[in-house]
Amino acid sequence: MVEIIAQTLRLFGQGTKVCAEITLMATDAGLISMNDVIAIGGTNVGADTACFISPAHTYTFFDLKMKELLCKPINF
Length: 76
Description:
Elements: H1 2-10, H2 14-28, E1 37-43, E2 46-54, E3 65-71
Antiparallel strand pairs: 1-2, 2-3
């Protein structure tokens, strides 16, 4: 199931998947509150994606809401 979720997020680009992952990890670590955040991610060539996200913990993954895709590369 985890791999299906990862592959689905990759459909929108690697950076989109990274944004979701770093938001989950930061929430689990207690580094961010449950308020909406802007997550920035990308690939090995740099940050190229930004998402406006309502965070969730990993154990409540389906509560995570990607509200807006602010930017992503045109070719990925």
